[in-house]
Design a protein that fits this description.
Blueprint lengths: L1 E9 L4 E9 L15 E6 L8 H5 L2 H7 L2 E6 L15 H17 L8 E6 L1 H12 L6 E5 L5 H7 L6 H9 L10 H12 L6 E7 L5 H13 L4 E6 L5 H15 L4
Length: 258
């Protein structure tokens, strides 16, 4: 496997940002299940973590080899991958600026059929938000134990934030609102693009995860909107013991191995 780690300046963020990239090669580290054409997976980390999270706590490098994936893991800091009202534009960075750099530097595919986006927790929220905002860019969206409604997070898990000031910096002066929920974003995307234009959405969550009821209800709402989506749950918590298994299951579904 080829792994690259570096820093590059982002005009969307106006800072130098860290990115990790895995590119499959011809080594014999693992037997490849798919070895026909490279696909690109943008993989987002959760709140309180950074671009190293997936390489530290999961087998993503092995999965990249087995399923012939280039995996791009950018720093998202504590942004929820949103365009801040008066600050860095993380949604723009991940959905537009970074893919243009990846395509230009590595000559990797940039078409919808070969491009996916995924993440866990805050990263799951980011994957859903970005995919719904840019449905023509991704062939599939994976959200593992995602935040589905920041108002619930702010209310029930307020200790995760640096108070109302941080919430306002990310979501606007009044903090998160129902307009920031994934259901609201999905409704807006369906209105603008039609349900058939939205990428397939895969959601997975541990049965013992406190986010599970919210993820399940979001899946039901997506179905009612006519969006192709799936929901899976099995014993597990809000941690990488669950996400490591879930990301491989998701990749197999995206690559139509199962």
């Amino acid at each position: 496997m080829s792994t690259l780690s570096g820093d590059l300046y982002s005009e969307s963020l106006r800072i130098t940002q860290h990115v990790n990239i895995i590119i499959p090669d011809k080594s014999d580290d693992f037997w490849s299940t798919i070895d026909d054409e490279v696909r690109v997976l943008y993989l987002l980390h959760g709140l309180g973590a950074n671009a190293d999270e997936w390489t530290r706590f999961s087998m993503i490098e092995a999965y990249a080899k087995i399923y012939d994936l280039a995996v791009v893991m950018p720093d998202g800091n504590r942004s929820f991958y949103e365009n801040a009202p008066s600050g860095p534009r993380y949604l723009e960075w991940v959905s537009q600026e970074l893919p243009a750099i990846i395509h230009a530097w590595f000559n990797l595919p940039s078409d919808r059929e070969h491009t996916f986006i995924a993440g866990e927790s805050m990263g799951g929220y980011g994957a859903l938000s970005i995919g719904l905002e840019n449905p023509g860019a991704y062939g599939g969206i994976v959200a593992l134990s995602p935040v589905t409604d920041p108002t619930i997070l702010a209310s029930d898990f307020s200790e995760l934030f640096f108070g109302a000031a941080e919430q306002a910096a990310v979501f606007g002066s009044q903090g998160p609102s129902k307009a920031d929920s994934i259901v609201a974003k999905a409704e807006q995307s369906v209105k603008q693009n039609g349900a058939g234009a939205i990428p397939r959405i895969i959601q997975m969550v541990g049965a013992d995860d406190p986010f599970a009821p919210h993820v399940r209800s979001t899946a039901e709402e997506l179905t009612s909107l006519g969006i192709e989506n799936s929901y899976s749950s099995w014993p597990g918590r809000h941690d990488f013991l669950f996400w490591n298994e879930a990301i491989e299951r998701s990749i197999r579904m995206l690559c139509e191995v199962e």
